[in-house]
Amino acid sequence: MRTTERILDLDLAISQPPRTAHLGHALVWIRTRWTSLRNRLAANNLADLDDRLLNDVGLSRSDVAQVLKEAGLADDPSQQLTRLAKRRSEQALRGRKAE
């Protein structure tokens, strides 16, 4: 037998993730979208508060309006609002006027 006749026929299966992995990714995606929508609705409710209450949490009406305008429908505006409020509270603790 010649070397050229000794060809091994290996059927190497291409590994594919199990269907449960696809289902898990889909569930994570749905949960993320649901959380983003819920947080967006909560941020919309912030716009209904009066200026005094918004100031108590470290936000202004223009902050809320701007973040809601810039964020897409599927985006979560709560993280950006949290960062703004935290920055304002840190500035207030240092005695600086909020920007």
From TrEMBL:
Give the source's domain of life in one word.
Bacteria
Q: Where is this region: Disordered?
A: 79-99
Domain YjiS-like, chain residue ranges per copy: 32-64
Basic and acidic residues: bias regions? 87-99
Output this protein's name: YjiS-like domain-containing protein
Query: Short name of one Pfam family for this protein?
Result: YjiS-like
